[in-house]
Amino acid sequence: MTEVVTSPPGVDRFPVRQPPPRAQLDALSREIRLLKQQLNAVILAHNYQVPEIQDIADFVGDSLGLSQQAARTPADVIVFCGVHFMAETAKILNPGKVVVLPDVEAGCSLEDICPADQLAALQRTNPKFWTIAYINCSAAVKALSDVICTSGNAEKIVRAAPPDRDVLFVPDENLGQWVMEQTGRPMTLWKGNCYAHVEFKRDSVLKLKQQLPQARVVVHPEALREVRELADAVCSTEKMVTYCRTNPASQFIIVTESGILHRLQKECPDKQFYCAPVYDAFRLPSDSCRCSECKYMKLNTLEKVRDCMKRLSPRIELPPAILERARLPIERMLQLSAA
Ligand code: 13P
Ligand code: SF4
Description:
Blueprint: H1 22-39, E1 41-46, H2 51-56, E2 59-61, H3 63-72, E3 77-81, H4 84-93, E4 98-100, H5 109-112, H6 116-124, E5 129-134, H7 139-143, E6 147-149, H8 154-159, E7 166-170, H9 173-183, E8 187-189, H10 202-211, E9 216-219, H11 225-228, E10 233-234, H12 237-246, E11 251-255, H13 260-267, E12 272-275, H14 302-311, H15 320-338
Parallel strand pairs: 1-2, 1-3, 3-4, 5-6, 5-7, 7-8, 9-10, 9-11, 11-12
Bound molecules: 1,3-dihydroxyacetonephosphate and iron/sulfur cluster.
Residues 83, 108-110, 136, 194-197, 222, 257, 294, 296-297 line the site of iron/sulfur cluster.
């Protein structure tokens, strides 16, 4: 198991998560590999999943990469180790396949903040709206949208919006604000945010940066503008991996969910990664966790992966009308991303 979080001089060591015992993980991994063969299954895992899930996955990536994998997989069963909206997207792209999610409670604060009926009511106020939905939303919201985007392609998708339409961007106002800054395109923003990313504050990231003056600061666009302003790069989780791999710097402050550190350390073993603190490091009791974790992403465990494959449950099921209507904006996104 890679130990990924180290501390700069003068700052207490961040507590490192205790994984289950090695023998237990090995036994579970063997069972999962066997089930994978029996079911002709593919295991897709998001960059925020716990290390042992990332290590047994066939593909680890960001929302865009996972959608692209889901769109092209020949497997009969998709085991989606991420959150609910991601597994729903895989189901929309594969209505005839079985899609399972290890923990059905793995939701997302952005999905919760944008109910489909409220979006439909707002859309009725302006027939010229062109709705761009960040993939972190329900299938019902996708079905109401013109096109989907992820943090990896949001700029491209917004630039491709018809010039004669008024862009309505839902549900993440921070990502929306960042894309407006990049493109200059005015947009109406839904008032939503990721509960985990808005915990990062300018002062605490700045203090860590002062202690690590050589470090590059890499920030997810779901973070607040005051934090994005400190960044050397603002990008999706997958682009973070590419940035850190190709940048000559050896130290990086990572402002996103701490699960990404496993992937970063694996791909760049000679570099040092520091989780940005979610609050002021100098006012904390020394044992408190200072890394950001998404409580939804962390619901999935290796044991639950094994169980969902054994039972083929919890399984993603959607009403046929939603499945059909949500497919077009996702396919539009995939086409625009490939162009
Ligand atoms: P990425 O697509 O950049 O991996 O982001 C997904 C997400 O949920 C960020 O919180
Ligand atoms: Fe949703 Fe935030 Fe968790 Fe990403 S980190 S899945 S945006 S709650």
